[in-house]
Automatic annotation (TrEMBL):
Name assigned to this protein: Polypeptide N-acetylgalactosaminyltransferase
Organism: Mugilogobius chulae
Subcellular location: Golgi apparatus membrane
Highest taxon of source: Eukaryota
Catalyzed reaction equations: L-threonyl-[protein] + UDP-N-acetyl-alpha-D-galactosamine = a 3-O-[N-acetyl-alpha-D-galactosaminyl]-L-threonyl-[protein] + UDP + H(+); L-seryl-[protein] + UDP-N-acetyl-alpha-D-galactosamine = a 3-O-[N-acetyl-alpha-D-galactosaminyl]-L-seryl-[protein] + UDP + H(+)
Family: Belongs to the glycosyltransferase 2 family. GalNAc-T subfamily.
Protein's pathway: Protein modification; protein glycosylation
Biological process (GO), any one: Notch signaling pathway
Topology of this chain in the membrane: Single-pass type II membrane protein
Cofactor(s) this protein requires: Mn(2+)
Subunit composition and interactions: Interacts with NOTCH1.
Molecular functions per Gene Ontology: carbohydrate binding; Notch binding; polypeptide N-acetylgalactosaminyltransferase activity
Keywords from the UniProt entry: Disulfide bond, Glycoprotein, Glycosyltransferase, Golgi apparatus, Lectin, Manganese, Membrane, Notch signaling pathway, Signal, Signal-anchor, Transferase, Transmembrane, Transmembrane helix
One annotated Gene Ontology cellular component of this protein: Golgi membrane
Length: 540
């Protein structure tokens, strides 16, 4: 069977098995590995030398919900590529669009785009990979310009060598900030220089996939108050490998941190290429009509460096008459780094500063909002994010507290949680009753009650009937800990997939044994892959 065929029929294979795994055996289907991408700047199409590399993404089935299995099933019956998708397969970038996307057609008169990329001390190769991918995979007519905003970087590479590159590309412009502004004011500076119809913001370490722009522009052109995000595929910070993301949508927690949520079935519809309404956006990658961006008040210029602007803009869009969508057929890869490679001047926590500004303006009545005739935050919660509304407004389940009035979720499976890479079992490092305690891998002992986990219908992993396995949504590189069960999903929601990976819905990563496996048996969260270090078996 060819690689391509295996990829097409993946959903069909999956549909014959149940989603939640109870087995430890390795999947019968071995996915082909994705073609490695070099970190050198490249010009897409000629790479790969005509090689057909329709590689399945590494974490493809780690996080399939029943709805997604259905989506892929649907895809299987339509075994075709369009020309551009075929080009993707030939160019070495993994084909991550669902096949239903091949049937989309676009108006010949789409608006033009100004792509704005702000950067601070970005690796030149990553920045050029972003720019080249846009130049290579965007139709000439639709690309008005690329505006690079250098936020007062210090790296030498970003001086002469970058200028040389820019001078050879007609459509690429470079704006340099005289002082460090942060990404929020940086984007506003970029927008001020832009003259295309639609602003498209990208982070400086992305790779756009084929046909990435048309679905975004098409939705914006149908309604200028629609703001559209692509699906953000994963580029590994360690290997630079590009792999598909599951289709999830944006939410937030009560600490005002962005998180990924599963898409409610009502939003999916029968055709998986349909745009998905998203309460919030991750922030870096989106398309917005330029005049609407100005009309809506751009960004809050009082926000510094990094953080908070994504939720602020999302609330403003929804509350002031617009809508925020994710176009499942537009795919852009983004390097997810474990740590940001920069601080903020003076070492202030700009995320907290920015979030406070956001809360003051949007989370209760405030005069600034009257000008735009915006709705209330209560309206937003009830209509756009009802999942959160129930945790805030009912007072039965206030944020951060276990809801005692609701029945306990049904346990789906119980047993020891054995890691295939080490053969050891996941246990509390100290007492299993200790809140905030770490979890580690130790020898499995069937007699030991303290090794018993329960996976319930809400995706909670409960140790010894007491505490839940929880990840930090603030510091996503921290290892998971045992916390009081809060019953509102997110940081405590896990999917045990067919291929035995434990996918954490909120941070979009998988639970992994830390390598090399030391005597302490540490575990950590990592980008999902096929390794045994990430395979877990819940065995009774
Ligand atoms: O002072 C700065 N000046 C800058 O120009 C700090 C950053 N930047 C640039 C930086 O070089 C990069 O191109 O701004 C861009 C975003 O910074 P990142 O890549 O450090 O941010 P991130 O990817 O960690 O964080 C996400 O949340 C941010 C909140 O402020 C921004 O909205 C980012 O754009 C956003 N990234 C994405 O949405 C990509 C998907 C990640 C997820 C989830
Ligand atoms: Mn980024």
């Amino acid at each position: 069977m060819s690689l391509t065929l295996r990829y097409f029929c993946y959903g069909c294979l999956l549909s014959s098995v149940t989603w939640s795994s109870s087995c430890c055996s390795t999947s019968t289907w071995a996915p082909p590995t994705a073609a490695p991408l070099s970190n050198q700047p490249h010009r897409g199409p000629e790479r790969g030398g005509g090689r057909r590399a329709a590689a399945a993404p590494a974490n493809q089935d780690a996080e399939l919900s029943p709805e997604m299995v259905f989506q892929r099933d649907f895809v299987c019956s339509q075994d075709i590529f369009n020309e551009q998708d075929q080009q993707a397969a030939d160019s070495g970038i993994p084909q991550t669009r669902l096949l239903t996307c091949s049937f989309q057609s676009f108006s010949p008169s789409l608006p033009s785009a100004s792509v704005i990329i702000c950067f601070f001390n970005e690796a030149l190769s990553a920045l050029l990979r972003t720019v080249h991918s846009v130049l290579d995979r965007t139709p000439e007519l639709l690309l008005h310009e690329i505006i690079l905003v250098d936020d007062h970087s210090e790296l030498d590479d970003l001086k002469g060598a970058l200028e040389q590159f820019v001078s050879s590309e007609l459509k690429v412009k470079l704006v340099r900030n005289d002082k460090r502004e942060g990404l929020i004011r940086g984007r506003m500076i970029g927008a001020k220089h832009a003259t295309g119809d639609v602003l498209v913001f990208l982070d400086s370490h992305c790779e756009v996939n084929v046909l990435w722009l048309q679905p975004l522009l098409s939705l914006v052109s149908q309604d200028r108050r629609t703001v559209v995000c692509p699906v953000i595929d994963i580029i590994s910070a360690d290997t630079l490998k590009y792999s598909a993301s599951p289709i999830v949508r944006g939410g937030f927690n009560w600490g005002l941190h962005f998180r990924w949520d599963p898409v409610p079935p009502s939003e999916l519809g029968p055709d998986s290429s349909k745009p998905i309404r998203s309460p919030t956006m991750a922030g870096g990658l989106f398309a917005m009509d330029r005049s609407y961006f100005n009309e809506l008040g751009q960004y809050d210029p009082g926000m510094d460096i990094w953080g908070g602007e994504n939720l602020e803009l999302s609330f403003r869009i929804w509350m002031c008459g617009g809508q925020l969508l994710i176009a499942p057929c537009s795919r852009v890869g983004h390097i997810f780094r474990k740590r940001r490679p920069y601080g903020s001047p003076g070492g202030t926590d700009t995320m907290a500063h920015n979030s406070l500004r956001l809360a003051h303006v949007w989370m209760d009545e405030y005069k600034l909002r009257r000008k735009l005739q915006c709705r209330s935050f209560k309206w937003f919660l009830q209509n756009i994010y009802p999942e959160m509304s129930s945790t805030a407004l009912n007072h039965k389940n206030p944020p951060g507290l276990m809801n005692r009035n609701v029945r306990r979720p049904t346990v789906l499976q119980r047993g020891r949680l054995r890691n295939l890479g080490s053969g050891r079992c996941l246990v509390a490092q100290g007492r299993p009753t200790q809140k905030g305690g770490a979890v580690v891998l130790r020898s499995c002992d069937p007699q030991d009650q303290e090794q018993e986990w329960a996976l319930d219908e809400e995706g909670q992993l409960v140790l010894s009937g007491l505490l839940c396995l929880d990840v930090s949504e603030v510091r996503t590189s921290d290892p998971p800990r045992l916390m009081k069960c809060h019953g509102s999903g997110g940081s405590q929601q896990w999917n045990l997939s067919k291929s035995s990976r434990l996918y954490q819905v909120s941070v979009g990563q998988c639970l992994s044994m830390s390598e090399p496996m030391g005597p302490k048996g540490y575990v950590s969260m990592a980008i999902c892959d096929q390794s045994e270090a990430q395979q877990w078996c819940l065995e009774s």
